[in-house]
Amino acid sequence: MQIYKAPIDDMRFILEAFGYDELVGSLPDYEAFDLETVTAILKESGKFCTNEMLPLNRKGDQEGLTYDPETSSVTLPEGFKALYAKFVESGFAGIAHPEEFGGGGGPATLALMLSEMATATNKSFSMCPGLTHGLVEALLHFGTDQQKKDFLPKLVSGEWSGTMCLTEPQCGTDLGLVSTKAIPEGDHYKLTGTKIWITF
């Protein structure tokens, strides 16, 4: 039996020690996320991670994803689809993304603490929301207005998820060795290269 106790007291101690309310909770964008509110959210997330994510942790390692080349479809480990639906319903997925795209408008500090608990209880599952978060951040900082309008609401809500397509036969995570190219061709891109797997 796997055991996990969310480190809420430790997290709160760190927030207090570094003056969270003065440095973050008092900012105009984050007034709704004072220390007491953040602590309550952390407690609920800790319960979710312990009760929902942890029990499926082993399945992610033992079953993994299954690819069907005939249908070009991927099947998640048993229980992951229902877990993802619960995760989206919980509101944790978009809690730190901008309200204008359907997020909760919370600070990155909160998102990082939620991510720590998710990763500790179910690394394989947590890769999905983690990579989606990275994609949302990339679009927020580098996307066009049209890309933000088209993609962010669905990513922030959890209707869509993100992935990382990095690994090639000649390299792992060394971006300097990636050789796949996307060449503009009219209203689309022509892709050349080989990926040996993608993350989520």
Task: Set out the fold topology.
Elements (H helix, E strand, L loop, with lengths): L7 H10 L2 H6 L9 H19 L3 H6 L3 E3 L4 E3 L4 H11 L17 H14 L1 H20 L2 H13 L23 E5 L2 E5 L8
Antiparallel strand pairs: 1-2, 3-4
Helix pairs in contact: 1-3, 3-6, 6-7, 7-8
Describe what you observe in this structure.
The protein is mainly alpha-helical and 200 residues long. It has two domains: 8-162, Butyryl-Coa Dehydrogenase, subunit A, domain 1 (Orthogonal Bundle), CATH 1.10.540; 164-200, no CATH class. The protein has eight helices and four strands, in the order ααααββααααββ. The protein has helices at residues 8-17, 20-25, 35-53, 57-62, 80-90, 108-121, 123-142, 145-157, and strands at residues 66-68, 73-75, 181-185, 188-192. Strands 1-2 form a two-stranded antiparallel sheet. A two-stranded antiparallel ribbon has the order 3-4. A hairpin with a 4-residue loop joins β1 (66-68) and β2 (73-75). α1 (8-17) runs antiparallel to α3, α3 (35-53) runs parallel beside α6 and α6 runs antiparallel to α7 (123-142). It starts with 7 loop residues before the first helix and ends in an 8-residue tail after the last strand.
Can you count the helices? Answer: 8
Number of strands: 4
The rough form would be described as globular
Instruction: Summarize the amount of helix as a percent range.
Output: 40-55%
Structural class: mainly alpha
Straight-line N-to-C gap: 26 Å
Number of domains: 2
Low-confidence stretches: none
